[in-house]
Amino acid sequence: MEDKKITLRLNNKKQSGHGIASFALGITSLILFLSAVGISAFGDRSTDSIALTIGLVEIIGFIVCLVGIIYGVIGELSKDTFKTFAHIGIGINLVMMLFHVLVIIYGFRG
After folding, report:
1. 80 in the Ramachandran plot: left (φ > 0), alpha (ψ -120 to 50) or beta?
2. What whole-number distance in Å separates Cα of residue 10 and Cα of residue 7?
3. DSSP code of 46?
4. 107-108-110 Cα angle (round to 5)
5. What is the model's pTM?
6. Distances (CA, A) of 10 to 4, 6, 7, 83, 84
7. How far apart are CA 27 and CA 18, in angstroms?
8. Are 100 and 30 in contact (CB under 8 A)?
9. pLDDT value of position 14
10. How far is CA 83 from CA 21, 68, 78, 93, in A?
11. Residue 40 in 3-state DSSP?
């Protein structure tokens, strides 16, 4: 006799694919930010290539945040789906966008 797991589903909702993508892009942006901080902390600052590398990583991170916010909003607007990952993705992307912008502004000032 086979034991089958019995589950109770009260609705047919699934997680939004766009929300999950937004969450994943937020985590990717966090990794990019941490890598830029690591490059800044442990790189040889006597060369201009380190500053260029940090700037490129931060610009890529900013673009990833923009795409993540767009996917989060699309996931938020989709019907008959759970919105948990869309909410979390939008939040992570907004915070990381702030960090990326601050680093980019500091790079232009310094």
Report:
1. left
2. 10
3. T
4. 65
5. 0.84
6. 19, 13, 10, 16, 17
7. 14
8. no
9. 84
10. 12, 14, 9, 15
11. helix
Tokens in use for 35? 């890598």
User: Do the beta carbons of residue 33 and residue 55 sit within 8 Å?
Assistant: no
Cα distance between residue 56 and residue 62, in whole Å: 10
What are 8-60's pLDDT values in tens digits?
777 777 888 999 999 999 999 999 999 999 998 888 877 788 888 999 999 99
Spatial separation of the C-alpha atoms in residues 38 and 33, rounded to whole Å: 9
Helix 17-42 vs helix 48-77: angle between axes, to the nearest 10 degrees? 160
Phi-psi label, residue 53: left if phi above 0, alpha if psi -120 to 50, beta otherwise: alpha
Beta-bridged to residue 82, according to DSSP, are 15
DSSP symbol at 16: -
**Amino acid 3: pLDDT:** 66
pLDDT in tens, 58-107: 999 999 999 999 999 999 998 888 899 999 999 999 999 999 999 989 88
